[in-house]
Specification:
The chain is of the alpha+beta class. It has 14 helices and seven strands. Helix 1 crosses helix 13 and helix 8 crosses helix 11. It is globular, with a radius of gyration of 22 Å.
């Protein structure tokens, strides 16, 4: 894979947690830990897991999104509601929940690779022709909903069918993706994320509009005419469509958090396949989050076959010994690179561009 692609992924993931990184810089370490602990503990009732999440920075993206979305209550309400439903389900029907998680998680895991593929394709296509932009957006929308959002939707739906207080309790386990969205819309806390944020049109209908090309761009008015369902229609501006694309990204963050948090809370219950592929895009996305959160800036990647040098700059010109402590936050993605057969080296630079420290991780040296 070309370094340029991974560099774009990493730089983007650095930006994703910039707000959280600034918040961390403004607080002492103890206060930041307490803030993160209080926020994460709302959703995860396992203090050991919460401490692990903070110390490793593996879930910096999810925490950052939760803080960013404080002004849009539906986001945290939907996540909290599902976490509670999952907890209720596993306590009342442990075997069924284990079957669902172990059966559905491989599809959810694969969808994250699809998400990064969509990011790559989005950045490959550029045009100033509105008709071309509309077509590109709808193609990306249909593919993203189908390959990224729907695996998460199925996971959430199936868990809710075994949660006793869920309005979906006892419903058939196997249903279509579109039907699963329709069923989840019967739960008040999912109406906003699956419909209202998309101009009042449900997620499954956007998938249908995209995949069936049920849209038409009108050059004279610069408007987009869409048809869906039983002769229903909606007229959008290009800005409306762009807003829907942004909300697809926000929805994906919500769905990822809904799935990941309860699995982490009850992680000892599940036997998830250790040989599931973790793509380089996913690894560098996580690495970028950690780089930003700990006060560093990503500089680039130098590759020589399986020997890679990841270059980062310390934005605060700290003592080089500080890097040893922060290195723990980068250890997990480096271990994943090792599993993928990559010898990873981290090279630290100061703000003057001088290389001040190197840490080398050879495959045989990490156990």
């Amino acid at each position: 894979m070309k370094s340029e692609h991974l560099e774009r992924i990493t730089s983007s993931s650095v930006i994703e947690v910039e707000e959280l990184a600034r918040l961390r810089d403004s607080m002492c370490e103890e206060d930041f830990y307490l803030m993160a602990q209080q926020e994460l503990s709302r959703y995860i009732h396992n203090s050991e897991v919460v401490s692990m999440m903070i110390n490793t920075s593996n879930n910096a993206y999810e925490l950052s999104r939760l803080l960013q979305m404080k002004g849009r209550g539906w986001y945290s309400v939907a996540i909290l509601s599902f976490c509670n439903m999952f907890r209720e389900a596993i306590k009342s029907n442990r075997a069924a929940v284990i079957d669902i998680v172990e059966g559905e998680y491989p599809s959810v895991h694969a969808s994250l690779a699809n998400y990064h593929d969509s990011y790559f394709l989005q950045n490959q296509y550029q045009s100033d022709n509105p008709r071309h932009i509309v077509r590109a957006y709808f193609r990306m929308m249909g593919d993203t909903i189908e390959s990224v959002h729907f695996p998460h939707v199925q996971f959430i739906y199936k868990i809710m069918t075994v949660a006793p207080s869920s309005p979906l309790h006892g419903r058939p386990m196997k249903i279509s993706n579109g039907k699963a969205v329709s069923e989840l819309l019967k739960h008040d806390n999912f109406i906003d994320p699956f419909k209202e944020i998309f101009h009042g049109v449900s997620l499954n209908q956007w998938r249908n509009i995209s995949n069936h090309s049920s849209y038409r761009y009108e050059k004279k008015t610069d408007l987009i005419h869409c048809k869906y369902g039983n002769e229903d229609s909606i007229i959008l501006s290009l800005e409306d469509l762009e807003n829907a694309m942004v909300n697809l990204d926000i929805l994906q963050a919500m769905l990822k958090t809904c799935v990941e948090f309860p699995i982490l809370e009850f992680m000892r219950e599940f036997n998830l396949l250790s040989d599931m592929e973790v793509t380089e895009e996913s690894i560098f996305s996580q690495l970028g989050n950690s780089i930003s959160l700990h006060g560093y800036k990503f500089k680039g990647i130098q590759k020589n076959n399986i020997d890679w040098v990841i270059q980062i700059e310390d934005c605060r010109n700290r003592d080089p010994d500080t890097f040893v402590k922060d290195l723990q936050a980068f250890l997990h993605p480096l271990l994943l690179l090792r599993r993928n057969g990559i010898n990873a080296e981290i090279e630290f630079f100061n703000t003057s561009g001088k290389s001040v420290k190197r840490f080398f991780f050879k495959i045989k040296d990490i156990n």
